[in-house]
Amino acid sequence: MFADHQEYDVVVTAVAPVGAAVHVDGHDGFIDRTKHPSWWSDTPHAAVGDRMRAVVLDASRTPSRFSALPSDMQTARSLRHTEPLVRLCPPTDGGRTVKWSAVEEALGVALPADYKRLVQMYGGGLFAGVLWLLEPGCPDEMYDLVAQAAEREEILAELWEAGEGKPSELHESNARLVPWGYAEGAGHFLYWLVRPGVEPEEWTVILNEGRGPLWEAYPVSCSQFLLDVVAGTTTSFYFTDLDDVVDPEDGTRFAPNSQILSQ
Questions:
Q1: How many CB atoms lie within 10 A of CB 134?
Q2: Fewest 10 Å CB contacts: which of 19, 42, 138, 142?
Q3: DSSP string for 187-211
Q4: Do 127 and 246 meet the contact criterion of CB atoms below 8 Å apart?
């Protein structure tokens, strides 16, 4: 029934010194007292009848172990699609260690945990022969996250000032785009749609076609978008014909910047 890293709305059915029993969809779970916000703050202790959002930490145990800590839910969201992506398309050179505080200060925004995990595991590079993951500190500015954020902001501002239509998602006050991916050859850019009051883990992926004014929006994380492209399950018009343009052996292959840019 339950799956690791998935979130559920649970109801507390019993409370003991060691934690709280919970129930959801006909199945039982357990939240250890250290995995309830009250252990770390002035939040009221769990009580029978409480309803809360919780994430599965270990579905193999009986009952399954849950956590109601926001930090655990954030971590789970970063793992939900990165783990199956790693299984399908393994990293090759150990990834990158990044000082994220400096990167986020330069961008003026906190970044999603799943993106940070992708960079940690893969570094920047090319997925499935077509989709480039931008990374901070890349020696080639074309594939550098911070450099492209500044460049794309300038380019888009010029296009919109010249009369090209702005995507409806950006009509909200203070909404902005931050690029995270680039489609090699076609020139499509993939962005996060950053909106006031929306947590990074809830950001929408939005794509701008490389040779035209059209946009696509997907309410998914960047890791889920990547997974769908590599797995061949994407609904994006721009990536549904990969079998026609990518060698089957490259479809689940990742090539890191360290390999590509040194050639």
A1: 26
A2: 42
A3: --EEEEEE-TT--GGGPEEEEE-TT
A4: no
Q: Which residues pair with 206 in a beta bridge?
A: 191, 217
Between CA 5 and CA 46 the distance in angstroms is 22
CB within 8 Å of 87: residues ≥ 6 apart: none
Q: Is the backbone of residue 25 left (phi > 0), alpha (psi -120 to 50) or beta? A: left
Across the strands, what pairs with 192? Answer: 178, 205
Which pLDDT does position 85 carry in this prediction? 94
Summarised one tens digit per residue, pLDDT across range 12-26 is 999 999 999 999 989
Sort strands 189-194 and 27-32 into parallel, antiparallel or unpaired. unpaired
**Conformational region of residue 101, where left means phi above 0, alpha means psi within -120 to 50, and beta covers everything else:** alpha
Is residue 68 a contact partner of residue 37, using CB atoms and an 8 Å limit? yes
Q: What is the mean pLDDT of the chain?
A: 91
Q: Which domains does the chain have, with CATH numbers?
A: 7-68 (2.40.50.140), 77-260 (3.40.1580)
